[in-house]
Amino acid sequence: MFTNDEKLIRYVLETGQRNQPILKALRDETAAMPRGRMQIPPEQGAFMTNLVRMIGARKTLEVGTFTGYSALVVAMGLPDDGKIIACDVSEEWTSIGRRYWQEAGVAHKIDLRLQPAVATLDELIAAGESGSFDLAFIDADKANYDAYYERCMTLVRTGGVLAIDNVLWHGAVVDDARQDEDTVSIRALNLKVHGDPRVDMNLLPIGDGLTLAVKR
Q1: CA 128, CA 148: separation in Å to the nearest integer?
Q2: Beta pairing partners, 63
Q3: What's the order of all strands across the beta sheet hosting 83-88?
Q4: In sequence order, which residues have a C-beta less than 8 Å from that of residue 172 and are 6 or more positions away?
Q5: Which residue(s) pair with 199 in the sheet?
Q6: Residue 124 above 80 pLDDT?
Q7: Dihedral, 147, 87, 109, 81 alpha carbons, nearest 10
Q8: Which of 212, 208, 201 is nearest to 163 (CA)?
Q9: C-alpha distance from residue 95 to each of 35, 38, 121, 188, 214 (Å)
Q10: DSSP, residue by residue, 130-142
Q11: Taking a C-beta distance cutoff of 8 angstroms, is the pair 201, 188 a contact?
Q12: Helix H or strand E segment including 212
């Protein structure tokens, strides 16, 4: 969350969304893992559920699934015949998500593809799926963000949304001393999206920064 005010953070967490027990259980299990901070926060999850409903999404993409929280919140916003194609490479992490998807009754909406995301996206394009997705959520390895963005631009329909996570990168995007590959890649994509005439965009200070780009 884009504030250091603990009292305000607590207020937002307590009153800013309705905290469903199954979501809290998955957050708590993930938070106990060594890489638990990779999980999106609850206020972002609630926003994504509502975003899916607001745009009437039925078919979505997810690049980077981790323990399945983002897929779960998106699936909760989809109609019963909606579909997520979720891309990840970790059987270990996604197996956690599978348990919660099943318990929540949304597993039938989630098509998990365990291979490098670029390969899955290229397969979808080759299969004639271009312009057929309502929403793409990008939250995977940062060095490949540009590759994911371009492929999702192809796959998302006109008027569809690309949601790009971690675009503030814990403040590193404004720290000139940070020149590692991940930080440089995020900075470059932020500038690219800002100037991309193919989209209307805004960067939201939610979680670790979430850019929404609406395809023209």
Answers
A1: 17
A2: 87, 138
A3: 110-114, 83-88, 59-63, 133-138, 156-165, 210-215, 199-204
A4: 178, 183, 186
A5: 215
A6: yes
A7: 20
A8: 212
A9: 15, 16, 21, 33, 32
A10: TT-EEEEEE-S-G
A11: no
A12: strand 210-215
Residues across the chain:
216
Residue 146 structure tokens: 């540009």
The string of pLDDT tens digits covering residues 21-77 is: 999 999 999 999 988 888 999 999 999 999 999 999 999 999 999 999 999 999 999
Beta strands 210-215 and 199-204, pairing class: antiparallel
How far, CA to CA in Å, does 172 sit from each of 108, 149, 155? Answer: 38, 21, 30
β-pairing, 156-165 with 133-138?
A: parallel
Task: Please give the Cα distance from 23 to 69 (Å, whole number).
Answer: 7
Facing residues of 213 across strands?
162, 201
pLDDT at 190 over 80: yes
CB of 116 closer than 8 Å to CB of 89: yes
